[in-house]
């Protein structure tokens, strides 16, 4: 028996299959076709299904999926494994909530700082007693590159460069790359230092599509030995929620 987990983000749809806590398969789509979903689910006997979405509209494929299975729509009332102290739980992004649930499931009884890199960069903390109070949101890697191009008259649109390791640029392109990527690096290290100074013995968990890139930015930092990479943390958190 398998658990079906659907995470609908701002840009991608991720669909995963779990047996217990073990991730068996995951696929991501811009907008899945019904045939693609049928192929993914072939051979699996679905016991439970959970859907998390940041989009207001429901696509046809999703409506049909809900007709096929008895699904749970993930929200703050489903998150019973943590103590949620967020003042406005209805406005808390489901991806942020699922990520701290996943962190608490994977590393119970410890302090966990979750940094998730995607459309935005989010920083969230759940303590050893599973208390969650909130965190921070800032623009993501690609959003920063796009903003520099969109809101200026002459700056080009560039892509992230994982091999860039200079402290400054000597032309416009390298100056943009330095500003965006070093800016994120200093932001990451600043947040990590703030949390680890306040909360000792704190795991640093990188998640999301840019988790590997962030790990590269932090490879020479003093925090590198304490970093754990969990690119599917949100999916694992949703799977944990359905089992609570």
TrEMBL record:
GO terms for molecular function: ATP binding; pantothenate kinase activity. Substrate binds at residues 86, 93-96, 172. Its main location: cytoplasm. One of its GO terms (biological process) is coenzyme A biosynthetic process. Its EC number is 2.7.1.33. It is found in: Cytoplasm. Pfam families: Pan_kinase. Homodimer. Belongs to the type III pantothenate kinase family. This is Type III pantothenate kinase. It comes from Mucilaginibacter terrenus. The lineage of its organism: Bacteria, Pseudomonadati, Bacteroidota, Sphingobacteriia, Sphingobacteriales. The gene is coaX.
